[in-house]
Amino acid sequence: MTSIPMLIVRKDKCDACYGDNFCNHVMKGSIVMDIPHKATAMSSKGAYVGQWEGKSIVVKTGAGTDRFMMFDRYSCNTVFQTPDCDVTSSISNISNIDIDIIRNLQVKIHGRPLPFSYCSSNDLLNELVAGYSRYPINRATNFLFTSLVINPEFAFLNFFTKNHNLPFPRNYGSCGRVSIIERNGSPLETFLDNPFKERAEIAFHILKSLKSLINDQDRWSLSYLDLSYENILYNEKSKSILFTESGNLVISQKINYDWTALGLCNENCMSKEAIYKILENQNCASFTYQAAHSMFATVCAQILTDSNDIRKKFGNKLLGETIPKGLLHSSTDDVSKSLQELLSQCVTESLVNGRMNAVKKLMAILKNIINST
Length: 373
Prior knowledge:
The protein is of the alpha+beta class.
């Protein structure tokens, strides 16, 4: 492992950056990262496994240099009418915690609004500022604005780390255009050959964590759209789940869920195409319902079940993806039939509210397995 290259840190760009509270650690070289010889799925996203004070971490840039270059040019053009300037002088003139301004700038930088911006409100953005309370308000505004435009993951993790007990990693801090993120667990594939009882416990905690996103917050419902084997970590000691990619998280005003409101919700209701279309139309209440259905169906189809017949019912969302065997493979004979029936109903419901009832019963069976001697 090697120290974080200054070429990606770009502390000189602050306050057009994610923050600078971790620069002391970065500059001392106490944070090290693994730079692969060939691009990997993680490194292609600007994410690198590392170590800090004996802790496993991920060093994240959140975006490629091209996105930052466009951000810098926009800032300079807007303030000084030139594409090249000292962006540290221009950022304070453009940083505005207003969702419409942020959404419009995302279009310029990314070619489209980022998912979170459709159902967010200025009320939420004002709460996100609290995640930067270590800084004076003008600097907090600059750092938050940069993150929301380039990659909102770091703003979300700041907020969750400070205010909430949610299944997302801690954001330890930032230096320039990198952030240091907790990696407290192992990928799910690590546990695929563990005894069935241990895998049942992991499955229970995944479902429990999903329920916490939609039920456990006073004001907000969270929709996590990146569920996959690669994006879930499990910690055996703490028996906790971490969802590792929150850049596409959508945080919307909390609603009182009526799971019968949609009728049957299957592929036409909860495919990514369907829910993104609703999101783009800013029909946030419907999006929140349908995204919740999609989250549970995705976990049941792509992570829990080992039945190809059940997976096929999930439709075209599986095309082109390589999915390992399900966590609940090789279940014991006494629960095998019940698990398959409930997983099938979770993936494709045949009764109104069938999916959520199936999840409830599935969690009860898994809890019994965990508590069995």
